[in-house]
């Protein structure tokens, strides 16, 4: 089963809670860009390895993470 994981990069405040709660270690801070608040936002490293546990989305205080199941 595959999942599409997206981050609202403009809403991310870089708190890194999502990184702490991802059991697979698939989330990192994107040092290559800054959002309008001047923060390096979180990003998913490898969507193909996401198991859809929702831990990251549930722990995000600003609800900027969306996880959708991809029908195959």
UniProtKB/TrEMBL annotation:
| Family matches, as InterPro entries | 4Fe4S_Fe-S-bd, 4Fe4S_Fe_S_CS
Q: Which organism is it from?
A: Sinanaerobacter chloroacetimidivorans
**Claim: Metal-binding is one of the keywords in the record:** yes
Q: Where is the 4Fe-4S ferredoxin-type domain?
A: 3-32, 41-70
> In its keyword annotation, does this UniProt entry include NAD?
no
Give the signal peptide range: none
Residues passing through the membrane, by range? none
Select a single GO molecular function from the record's annotations and give it.
metal ion binding
This one is known as 4Fe-4S binding protein
Q: Which UniProt keywords apply?
A: Iron, Iron-sulfur, Metal-binding
């Amino acid at each position: 089963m595959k999942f599409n994981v997206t981050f609202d990069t403009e809403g991310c405040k870089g708190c890194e809670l999502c990184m702490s709660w991802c059991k697979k270690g698939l989330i990192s801070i994107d040092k290559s860009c800054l959002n309008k608040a001047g923060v390096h936002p979180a990003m998913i490293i490898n969507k193909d390895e996401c198991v859809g546990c929702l831990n990251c989305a549930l722990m995000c205080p600003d609800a900027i993470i969306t996880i959708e199941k991809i029908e195959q």
